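PROTOCOL LOG
Step 1. Enter all chains and additional molecules of the complex.
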Amino acid sequence: MIARKSILIYKFTFVLLLWFLLGVETCLLAEQQDPNGKEDLFEMSIEELMEVPVVVSASRQAQKVGELSVPVSVITAEDIHYSGLTSIPEILQFTPGVDVLKLSRFRYAVGVRGLHEFISDRTLVLINGRSAESPLFGGAEYYTLPILMEDIERIEVVRGPVGAAWGANAFTGVINIITKKPEDILGYFGSTTMTEFGDSYTHIRVADKKDKWKWRVSAGYEDLKNSDDAGAGCYASNTTAAVNALMGFSRFTANDFMRNWRFDTEAFYDYSDQTKISFGTGYSHAELGDWEWGGYYPGGTGRYGTVRSYTKLEHEFDNGSTGYLQWFGNFGSSMVPTLMKWNWMQNDIEGQLNFKAANAHNITIGGNLRFIQLDTNTKIENPQELTYSGSPFNEQFAGAFLIDRWLLSDRLTFEGQIRTDYYSETQTDWATRLTALYAMDKQKDHILRLSFAKAFRTPFVSPRKALTGRVPLPSPPYPPGLFAFNVVLADELENEETYSLDAGYTGKFTKNLILRADAYYQRFDKLIGYTKTYLGSIPYHKADNIDGADSWGSELELILEGKPGKISAWYTYNAFQEDISQQGIRAYLPAEHKAGLTGRLFLSDGWTFNANYKYMDTTRKLDLDTTILEVGSSHRLDLGLAKKFAKGKGEFMIGVSDLLNKTNDPHFGLGQLSAHETPGRMFFARLQLKF
Amino acid sequence: MRIKAYNLIVLFFILFMALFVTKAQADPTTSREYQVKAAFLYNFIMFVDWPVEKMADINDPIIVGIIGNDPFGDAFEPVKDKKVKDKNVVLRRFKGLEELKKSAEKDSAQLNAQIKALKECHVLFICSSEKIHLKEIISLVENNGVLTVADTDGFIEAGGIINFVMEDKKVQFEINIVASEKARLKISSKLLRLAKRVIRVETNEKNQKHSKVDGIWNKTALRSEYVCHQRHDNKT
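Step 2. Run joint prediction.
Step 3. Record the structure below.
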């Protein structure tokens, strides 16, 4: 059965690749038959004509996509807009090399090239280059981010370790969310999306400018119903039907709703031609269901509040050098009744200077200091079940980086990145990326890349200091005295390490046809997972640096974009082989085969049709001890049809997400025993007005 | 395991196919600089709103005029098959102003017809050969919804709307908003953002005279006179 399935996957992959090839060759032939044989500059956007750099996440400076030291895919504002989707992980799943699993109505496991869990602490998430991670868990909790979808200019997805540019957490990749500038969205804007289940997503915004000031103010409200209310929520055990019956899963009801209020504002002040100041504050308040533990929700309704603020001073010196000084603060307060309450503050000061040296060297130097205060023992009325040893925590990070982009000749560029980071509670470590880029032609339309990188991941408080995680299972249906998750304090944990070697090619065959191909090998060492130990007859789990793993793969992305619309297709092969069998790594492995197709067609009279398709292979999870869990393969298809009216000031959209699946299967994650299915197919309508 | 090996082989085959499929670039008959500038002119149309009367008839084309010694050659050839704002784009070439005046000595009606045609343009590129007539040409068309473009020093100060400048071998542009408002043109914020320099305050002879008188005041006057916004490419 397995062999047959593999053969089917192979055939599917092969057909898809043939399709890629045919597409590329057809377009190439079409261009070769152009009697003028000219590059059609008239099909280029004005940014392309100006050679405006578009990506900032590879080397902390704006660069063109083809000239990056690491593979980057970009999700544009248009991709987001015409998808009709209302959460960042939902749109990320249509990006090459990104593994996304939906765990509940609002929680997602997101990882670049896998290693994702309910907290994906090996992929760094940034908002405008500023960290969006939780200081308790290390990863980003997307639903707490005060970002509204239509405020996003683009999302840059970096595949591969870039710790040398961004620090410890850029272990498997970076997801950098870039917001729109006020001058691009002047005026009033309102948008509301309703789904067939009664979910809603509303966003209002005003952006204006006066004299030297530009500003944007956004506010939004999101309401997601429980999986039960949305036509799903059935429970299942990952063991047997008999266990299902014994545990009485049918008694459980899902508690995975979310209501979220978001507010986000930014202001920019042009102090002079050379000096600019910007600042902003975002606030998110969420009321939401709890984590699922063994089929039920011990914590009841939780409340999460997050404030993100920043101030940035940018200056351009007379000699053309540029630099900035920045402070940002992330503050959070979360409470899950009976389980845990925690408050935290992150303050970060960062500086960066970009200058030229000896003509051919573009240098970037900088560093940051971060102060974290975290209190996990805040008193709540009911007994806590999760505790952390040593709370409250006061931790300090410090990092320094140097990036040199050396334009050795018209065609050959070397880029060296090196960074060292000090962590007061763990260890000082370093990261690097060394890259050679070779342009195969004068226009630099065809570029080869070879790169080596080393990065590390330092354990945050949760794996390092979790002392007790006794989550009681309800009795009945469970026998009395059982707990879903028992933890003992870890011995001193070391940083996880990774080394990667990757090669890539970016080719621009015509004005609007781009092919990217990347292949990589990545070695992981000292991965932190859980081992099993017994206190009496009760099994406990203990975090430890267990062992390493190898991963390798290839990613292909083809983008054909023009005035009539856009077609992009991608295929990724991401393999992962752990050193020892049944090795817990606190994460799902990457789905080996993933493929995606996006089609967008701008029709006449303001109509636009959009389709997103994704295939994802089976996702494995190596869990705590002996169980290998699997999430089945899936096909996902989203369709949307939008119509502009009132001279483009209004737009109405109807669509369906996940057309092919009425529900999504449970993912056996945290609680190990069971999980519930979540709604899949969902029809929605959206109305937008701007004036 | 064998299946995985097949997959890898296929993937690397694709990768190498891609690597070796490259395309030779044809030699252009017009310099690359003016090919790019032609594409910019075409792009500008998308980011500018003309007065209603200028776009009233949906069958009328967008007219791009070039006055003076045309450096574009055949750079506009691809435009023949394209539409922008649901309109065809047509190119009109005009002789230099000096030459027009000379021909008017024989036939004044011809000059009037040429001036009328200039005013009908949506975009008018004023070639550098017309440098000494910049103000005169601009004043001929300035209240007629004509987007004036040039690549000549002093064009913005003479009341032109968009001027190309070269920087590090790349084509950039600057915008005079006051002039665009005079011409009743609305330039999109996106274009303004991409501009190297945006002039928001009227330039006038009086200020320029003052600035010539007092060297110290000169700098101050220029700074306040041209409230500029500059684009910075190399910032995160």
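Step 4. Note key features.
Chain B has one domain: 2-235.
The longest helix of chain B spans residues 2-20.
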